[in-house]
């Protein structure tokens, strides 16, 4: 008996019950979550289902690996520390079997070696605990877009456009010259207009290391970005949410 939340095949539509592994319908995103901490697993399941995903939970690595190799999923959210079989072992075996299932690893915040090993083994992305469910949702959307070949190449809000392929940035048709770090910061803000990113999230996503409460690095780069993106514009797009972080002003 799998320690998982599963739908009874007897209640599935005929088209679903007859699907073979690897033949997932494109109008839904089906996610397998392998996470042994039941509170985290429940939190993830509720958040993903609220977004419209179909979610199955599994609490053991060995049983989760069996599900991942015998049932169709669009993405696997995989914790590294698991009973029965660890997440890196599961990932290694999936890639050895040439299975293209997108994998997002859940890691401890300070375990850099685990993150690097996971990426080298073929993980598509990782997320350090604790995390916001909105960030996991965004990463699931990103890996499923990449898997389907539908990669978004242009980000835009108001009259600001960012071309992710050519790395061209324009505001009102006027080109803006950004450093690589400024470009990465703007890209992360633009991917979720209206969503507030904390300094911790920005530091982890843009600089790829843990946030030092004593540093003003994020604030310095935000000010640099403002001078280039907002200084000559009537509408200011980069907003400070006092006591929380920064966001791109959503379109009204």
Briefly characterize the structure:
The protein is α/β, with parallel strands linked by helices and 252 residues long.
How many domains make up the coordinates? Answer: 2
- CATH architecture label of the largest domain: 3-Layer(aba) Sandwich
Helix content: 25-40%
Note the main sheet.
6 strands, mixed
Topology:
Blueprint: E1 4-5, H1 14-17, E2 30-34, H2 38-50, E3 54-58, H3 61-70, E4 75-79, H4 87-96, E5 103-108, H5 112-121, E6 125-129, H6 133-148, E7 154-157, E8 160-163, E9 169-171, E10 174-176, H7 180-190, E11 197-198, H8 199-207, H9 217-229, E12 238-241, E13 245-248
Parallel strand pairs: 2-3, 2-4, 4-5, 5-6
Antiparallel strand pairs: 1-3, 7-8, 8-9, 9-10, 11-13, 12-13
Primary descriptors:
252 residues; alpha/beta; Rossmann fold; Arc Repressor Mutant, subunit A; elongated; disordered N terminus
Give an account of the 3D structure.
Helix 4 (87-96) runs parallel beside helix 5 (112-121). The longest helix has 16 residues, at 133-148. Helix 4 (87-96) links the parallel strand 4 and strand 5. The protein is elongated, with a radius of gyration of 20 Å. It folds into 2 domains: 4-148, Response regulator (Rossmann fold, 3-Layer(aba) Sandwich); 154-248, Winged helix-like DNA-binding domain superfamily/Winged helix DNA-binding domain (Arc Repressor Mutant, subunit A, Orthogonal Bundle). The model is unreliable at 1-27 (pLDDT under 50). The strands form 3 sheets. Strands 1-3-2-4-5-6 form a 6-stranded mixed beta sheet, sandwiched between helices. Strands 7-8-9-10 form a 4-stranded antiparallel beta sheet, with helices on one face. It is an alpha/beta fold and 252 residues long. The chain contains 9 helices and 13 strands.
